[in-house]
Design brief:
The protein is α+β, with helices and mostly antiparallel strands. The chain contains one helix and six strands. The strands form two sheets. It has a four-stranded antiparallel β-sheet with strand order 3-4-5-6, with no helix packed on it. A two-stranded antiparallel sheet has the order 1-2. A hairpin with a 3-residue loop joins strand 5 and strand 6.
């Protein structure tokens, strides 16, 4: 499994944001989870997760989620809305790629 040392998120019309996440869980073929946060505790953090569940007929369900916490969540709402749109696009691209390979 490849584990990222740094994550780069495209900026909304500006420069990308790069951060170094803290791994929370790495369970091959089951779960990959990290926590990204600001240096000041309680301001802003996001726990990002990919969870895999086996299904019948040699299929897998992927649940891709992020939970944001902290005082700046409301202030950063517009940016987080864009983040959600980016994740939806990522999920759609991944789905197409997996279905094309299958």
């Amino acid at each position: 499994m490849i584990v990222p040392r740094h994550v780069k998120v495209p900026g909304d019309g500006g420069a990308p944001t790069t951060f170094t996440p803290t791994l929370r869980a790495v369970r091959e073929n089951e779960e990959f989870r990290w926590l990204g946060k600001m240096s000041t505790p309680g301001l802003f953090s996001g726990e990002h997760a990919f969870e895999l569940t086996p299904l019948p007929d040699d299929r897998t369900r992927l649940v891709h989620s992020e939970l944001f916490k902290g005082l700046l969540v409301r202030v950063l709402r517009r940016m987080l809305d864009q983040t959600e749109r980016d994740f939806v696009a990522l999920n759609e691209a991944l789905k197409k790629r997996v279905e094309a390979a299958g």
